[in-house]
From TrEMBL:
It comes from the Bacteria. This is Alpha/beta fold hydrolase. GO terms for molecular function: hydrolase activity. Keywords: Hydrolase. Signal peptide: none annotated. Residues 2-93 form the AB hydrolase-1 domain.
Amino acid sequence: MGGNSSIFYSNLKALKKHFNIVAVHLRGHGKSPGVESGKEFSLETAAREVIAVLDHLLIKKAHFIGISLGTIVIHTICKIAPKKVSSAVMGGAITHFNLFSIFLVKAAKIIKPFTPFLWLYKLCANIIMPGKMNERSRRLFISQAAKMRRADFFAWFKLVDTVEEAYSGVPESSKDVPKLYISGSEDHLFIKQLRQDIQKDPSASFIIINDCGHVCNVEKNKEFNEASIQFLKSNIKKVKRAQ
């Protein structure tokens, strides 16, 4: 949340050597339209807009890559349109919140009416991406979040309560979709719950990058790129053999 395609700079450079890329800015991010006030907005809305981009470009099926919020949108796509997903790479994935995360969200809701949203974002960024290890990721995300409108930020923030619901049913609805989860060993808020949840998914595999935090595609981009490209290539070969 708050990021855009700039956080994928080093990944796009590597991926473009092997694949055709469509980089999608979610609503309220980058130069995409904002979240319109008064209209219903949900994770399913965001997922269907991504699907609409594929349909517009006549792409019947794609391999997806997402980080943090992007993984939640991909999970939603896996539920509502699994046939659109050839495979998925998800970094810093979020499936459930631990008690501290829940406390953080509740505290943020209390102070948000009288707090500049960027202050709130900086606070959350420092908790999710703490210390020197995450300094590069933290600076990058905060600089991009500063470009968001307050209304767009809080429209997305309201959806935090639906994150667990977004993952519910994913292993069953997309059991034939290969999924690679990549997390940093220091992604302290989400990794334990993620590891437990994906044990129920026979199509899921998990890689942990040592000495790395939440935004693993930025902090350890070389390792992330190598794992992603190897996974995507192996699944493209499988699709070709099946055709």
